[in-house]
Fold this protein.
Amino acid sequence: MDDSVAVDAKRILLRYGAPIALLDRIDEKERIELARLVSRTPVPDRGYALQDLLVERGYLDEEEVTAARGKAKGRRKPRKN
C-alpha cells in the first residue's frame, strides 16, 4: 500500500477516537480497512461505528466502551437506521 494511504487511515482512526496504543497493535492493512469502513458511516456516527468495529474485532472490551459512552456528556446518541 501507498504510505500516504496508511498515514491517512491512521489519522482517520485517531480522529474518531481510536487510542494510539491500540493502533500500534493493528497492522497497516487492517487500519486501512477500518478507516474505509468508518468513512462510509454518517459523520455524527463515526466514533460509535469505530468503537463497535474495534469491539467486534476484539481490540476493545465491550464493557469499557459501554461505560465510556454512559459517561460522555453532551454526545449525541447513535442514529437508528
The CA atoms of residues 55 and 62 lie 6 Å apart. The helical segments are 3-15, 20-25, 28-39, 46-56, 62-71. The chain has one domain: 3-71.
